[in-house]
Structures are given as C-alpha cells and as structure tokens.
Amino acid sequence: MRLDLLPRARRSRRLDLLAPALAFLAAVLIGGIAVAALGVPPGQAFLTYFVAPLSEVWSLQEVALKAAPLALIATGLAFCYRANLWNIGAEGQYVAGGLAGGWVAVAAHGSQGPTAWILPAMLLAGTCAGIAYAMIPALLRVRLGVSEILTSLMLVYVAQLLLDYMVRGPLRDPQGYNFPQSVSFDDAARLPLLMAGESLHAGVLIGLVGIGLAALVLTRTLFGFEVRTVGASPRAARFAGFSDARLTLAVFAISGGAAGLAGICEVAGRIGQLQPEISPGYGFTAIIVAFLGRLSPPGILLAALVIALTTIGGEGAQIDLKLPLDLTRAFQGLLLGLVLGADVLTRYHVRIVPGGAGAKGIP
Questions:
Q1: CA distances from residue 74 to 36, 79, 282, 285, 298 in whole angstroms, order as listed
Q2: Is residue 351 one of the residues assigned to a domain?
Q3: Which helix (H) or strand (E) holds 332?
Q4: What is the pTM of this model?
Q5: Nearest-CA neighbor of 286 among 315, 325, 267, 260?
Q6: Which regions span the lipid bilayer (predicted)?
C-alpha cells in the first residue's frame, strides 16, 4: 500500500486561510500534552507562553525587537525561495553585516567633528557586506554550478570565526581588560530609541519598511513577476526570456542585503558593541519564519511575531515553570511541520493505492 498525492481540481480559499490557524491549534494541543507529561498544568503553561508576554510593556517591546530582525531576514529569504533558490546562509550574512557596520562604529569612535554620517554609513556598510557575502554562493552557482545550499551554509561558520577573531584581535577594546569585545559605540553610532527610557529602537521601523518594500516589489513590479514565474515554472520563464543567472544574483543580493541590514541594526540597537556572538540564531530561525509565513511578506510578519512570542514565553516558562528551553524550539519546529503539512492537504488530496496495484506500477 502506498499514498499518492493528487492535485485538487479546485482549492478552497477559506481552507487556505484556516489551515495555518488549525495547524497552530494542533501544535498547541500537542504541546499541551507534552507539558502535561512533564508535570506542568497545560493551562498554566499556555498563559505563560502566550498571554504573559502580551501583558507587560517591556515584554511587548521584547517581542517586537525579536520579531523585527526575523521578519526582515525572512522577507529577504522569501525572494530566494520563491525562485527555487536555497540560501541557507542568512546567519553568516547577518554576522557579516554586523561586523562591517560595527567596524565603521569602532573606526569613528571618539570622532570630534560632525557625527551625523556615522549611523547611515554603518547601515550602508552592513547592507553592502551582507550583499557581498551572499554573492559568494550565488557566483559559485552561476559560474561553476556549485550547490548554493552547501556553500551558503559553510560560509556561516567562516563569518562567525572571522567575527570572533576580530573582537579578540584588531577590534578589541584596549581598555576592556582583555575581554573579547569592541569599545561601546558612541551615541551617534546607536539607533535612536522610539520611546525615552525604553528598549524599543528604530530598527523595528526599518524592519517594517523593508517588509513593505518587499511586498510592493513582489506584487507590483516586473521583477516580482519574474521571481514568481521562475519559481512556478522555470521552463516557461526561460521561454519568456528571463535570465536564470541574473535572477540568481538579484535574489541573493536582496536576501544578503536584508540579512546584513538586520545584523547591523541589532549591533547598533540592542547590543551597542561587537561581541563574539551577536546573533541567537536569527538567520536559521528566519528560515522557519519564511515558510510559516508562506513566503508572503504579510504572512512573514505575522509568523515572526508568533515565533518571537513563543521565544519570550519560552524564556518565561523556563524561569517560572522550570520547563526546558528546548521545548520551545521543539514547539517551533512542530509548528512549521504542521503548517507545511496543512498546506499540502489544501493543495492535494490523499489517495490510498493497494500494495498489489502499486507493485504492478498501476497509477
């Protein structure tokens, strides 16, 4: 016996909209069973995970601050994935952007002249570094046919080791008692706060602007049509004259630039200096966010908020309920699997083929 997936003749728009919500409810139900098995009341865990982070101003800000880089990186990745190209190295591009922009801040530390140029230069350097780093796997694919999956992933570790070397060597604070970190950035090299005395900074607005621009490009421009066409039907795209090589370079540039911009926003925002670790894994988590959001900028924004909410809630559950933080990561992976499974069932219906028929090759 085998299972065949047959395309549905007509797809229900209502079911398409309900599928992610049903998948989320199923994930919560399965998570509740796992929590109960660990001896914690599921209702209490639900309140800690999903309600408590929305009940305080500081926790709402934390959700926004975690969601912004995830959404920005995932939106850039959506361009690649829609074109059937697989950039798995957004984490490395994020680190490269943070390192390049942070180097500008360190070089300008203590400047006596005008300082208004520092922050724009940092953002530009971070974006350009992300683009340049993403061009390596893109060019290797276009020129040599090397798998972008392997090269982009391996370059993550190169970027992380380079950052570690720089903060322990050339960029280390000479007055930092040999701690592996740069000098603290000047005020002119920090993103402005949106509310005095709070932690919310302008990086959140940059993320929202990036999502809006991505939605506009994907839905209202010829380039967005080209991306969608190549992803849906590569042969038709080639027949229409679209260039695979040019599109590969373009979508990797967008993806890398978004990741690099997110990296420098994090360094110039929350962190305020270069350290050996400037990312809690945003580049990898953004892959989950991109697919949870169905590669659509509005969906990605919603998915980023959900992932950020569960992350903050998971940290609270670790403190208040003594639940392992790995449970949160397992829940996020489970949610992704259920959403993708729900999408499959909305597009296809399952047919059971008896073993004998399958063995004879009968369709």
A1: 33, 9, 9, 9, 11
A2: no
A3: helix 326-347
A4: 0.90
A5: 260
A6: 63-81, 93-111, 117-136, 148-167, 200-223, 244-264, 284-312
